[in-house]
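re the bet — no i am not wrong, look at it urself. input seq straight from the record:
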Amino acid sequence: MDGGWDDPAPTRGLAPLTRPQRLAPGARVAVVAPSGPVPEDRLQAGLDILRGWDLDPVVAPHVLDGHPTLGYLGGDDRDRAADLQAAWCDPSVSAVLCARGGYGVQRMVDLLDWDAMRAAGPKVFVGYSDITALHEAFATRLGLVTLHGPMTATADFLKNARAQEHLKATLFAPETVQTLRGGRALVPGRARGVTLGGCLALLAADLGTPHARTSARGGLLCIEDIDEEDYRIDRLLTQLLRSGWLDGVAGVLLGSWEECGPYEQIRAVFTDRLGPLGIPVLEDAGFGHCDGALTIPLGVPAVLDAEAGELRLEVPALR
């Protein structure tokens, strides 16, 4: 953890993943809905933003579907999986963007043909919240850097210029956003590691599944969540601790905790559960279910300086 800003002590564990190619004007991008149902008006508004970036968005066939009996799902599991796989394997598509989260990825992720997707080669993948399960699967099955960032048909993307601009910069000019600033030290210190993470509840739910990684050792863990009370956050962190998944983690970035109750109560849980790890912890780091959420690349080497409130990526998110 010590060692100075220029050369914090290295950690053994996670290796950097393969970075996809950045986008260029005119790139074709596919919008998919692996989780919950998508409001058509929000989808159209998001597509307009993408077109304004000089992208060519195409909508997967089942994006606006609803499940016949389970209203929280955006259509049949096999259809949602088929949409994602077809978009990924389409050689004309440079990026796959999720329309929204909700719930449903864990029902469809094992229906994907990972051999076919690996053969299709790397491309950009963007989403957060329930999409965390896909971030983990893309890391373990494909070895790819993915982007924990705003989704095309969500209100926090449609109404917030900061979220839009940070995602756009990450997609087109990632070297301009290699340092992410904001937040404050819950536990001071500096550490180097490879970024990973997402929604805390989904990381805990992933334990023991076929695509889950077995350890966060050597990683800079980026976590956030929504609508989880303090005792449930305690339970989720305790599950990760008891399983050994957090053994050797290099540092932690805490994003937003919207609708989780008074933050001082949530902060007390983090202090109690993460403080004893003896690693840097940066809180209020500006990503997740919040206004103006930053896009966090997962799978890249980075340096966390908790006291300076910075995460410095050692390479751009995309090539």
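see?? The radius of gyration is 18 Å. told u. also The first strand starts at residue 28 and ends at 32. so pay up
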